[in-house]
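One record is set out below.
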Amino acid sequence: MIILPAAALLLFFLILRKKDLDSRRAFLGAATFCGASLVLMTEILSIPRLVTRRGVAISWLVLALVSALVYVKGKAVKAPEQEAAGSEPAYEQLDMTMRALVCLTGMIIAMVGITALLAPPSGIDGMTYHMPRVAMWIQNHNVQFFPTRNYTQLIYGAFAEYSMMHTILLWGGDRFVNMVQFFSFVGCAIAVSYIVKMLGGGRRAQALAFLISITIPEGILEASGPMNTYVTSFWIATTTVFLMAFNEEASWLNTVCVGLAAGLAIFTKGTTYIVLPFFVLICWWIGTRASRIVFLKRCVVFVALILVINGPQYLRNYRFDGSPLGVPLNYGQLQLTVQDIGVRSTLANILRNISFHTTTPLESVNLKIEQGYRAAIQAIGVDPDDPRQVIWEKPFVLNHLSFQELLAGNPLHFLALLAALGIVFVRFRDTANRMLFWYATGMTVAFVAFCAILKWQRWSSRFHLPFFVMGAVLIALAFTRYFPRRVVSAVGIALVCCGLVYGAMNRYRALVPVGHIESAYRPRSVMYFAYDLDRYAPSYISAADAVNQTKCASVGIDSYTELSDPEIKDGPDSFITYPLFAMIHADGQKRRAFFSGVQNLTARFAEQQPHAPACAIICLDCARVPAKFEEYRALPNRSVFDGIVVFTAAGQEAAVK
């Protein structure tokens, strides 16, 4: 049944093509309507608790049938093709070098796609909040809040996770979970190539933008996993496409697509609140006076569509703690925003953030680069390790050249982007560069705002992905306009070669494992513990096996932490819970799992998510906590696996190891 969303996407695409939309814009429009439909059907099905395999499948089937009817009944519209003005003609043919590079780019796409299918979801964030919230929604048959020790499973935007949940329900397992990011990976490249066209670039520039987007190292590594940064980037790029289309034609189709795509971007990740407004503002500014006026008149429509997508989550968050955005960013010890925002702190954070993309393969050189950054930050009058600007009071360090998505930088793309920005700002008087200049200005200001507002953390490079995706537009147009073909070809060759290496050698799920790089062909139960979590694998697998040997259909997972404050902090190990959901086959039908022992603000949601009494409890980090043995004294059988204790009821004995 996984084919049903694909069928709906294809039918939406055919409907829009029938209206004579460019194939790339039709694809982006189809993705937008499918994304909005996915959110709406999830929220509607959630009310009667029908977020089940049957409920989701019927919803997609109905959507596909209605779309097929609209396609059959709809009339084809033929409109004259309008070529964007620019320095290069739209009909320009690609030279053999660029064609070969595009083919090699296709190889990178294939490698990432194969990796996404082979590997299960993994990663610290994936195992602690992205996937556990999906598992809980499946257990509860709805997306309402539930008792949990980890607030991030509740309050954050959820489009990526909704999509992952649909793949699990339709397929019957988590095989296609990583394809959500992979779809966005390819979609971003399609979107930026079309933005280049709308800004006047010819086929060569469009192909180069596609190539640049596909070869972003951090993006390649992330695109085969269960994160959500690529999904965010895709919706930001899609919103930009339809904003520019709105400038050309203020049709209701473009209006609806702008509102829905912006809503989906916001519903995916909170960093959208910082990044997207600047692209909206710049797209509005570069439009004609008439389009700007129409845009302002339709702001109510845009806001209404954004609320259609985000309203239910805003309401859940508001009922939770009085804030539509959920728990404030500055909550307890998890303070994500910079304190005392000012010019100096912003300049210091700009240096910290660009440091991600200036690493080399030579550690001796990296050490000198780090010393240079620290000296520059100190020269500004700021402590490089200032806890008001650096998260969790951890020192500022320069990451090594890495094949891990959380630590990887994009040095070649960063150099190319700097060169493109320099060219665009120097040649700002060129008539052909007017819109590109404002585009570059908006993106730069967005990055400065990002650095000014959010604290630096060692894993922040993934948050830069939208900037590199949208920066592909700048690089492609600037390079094809102002550099000789040989230089452009050399840059393309370097990026593709780099991309092929990263596509093959993902640190934790490599198609070509070398040295300490881990293979993508390992058992799924083991690969859930990638990202240096392998020390947990034996005890988790043993605990899951013990539960599977019982007939217990109602399992509690106690993600106990010895921290005095039970709220979300710097990654308690017991928050790694998704592998248990997967390994005990908790599908909400034959077996249901839930979080037990929760005594925080979310405990009141227990009444809204009723379940049968637990006949087994998997208690994490409980082996040396006598109070937990007393708490679960009603379950007399105990099996200990390192720090994990499995409590089972009489007649539900677990295997003791």
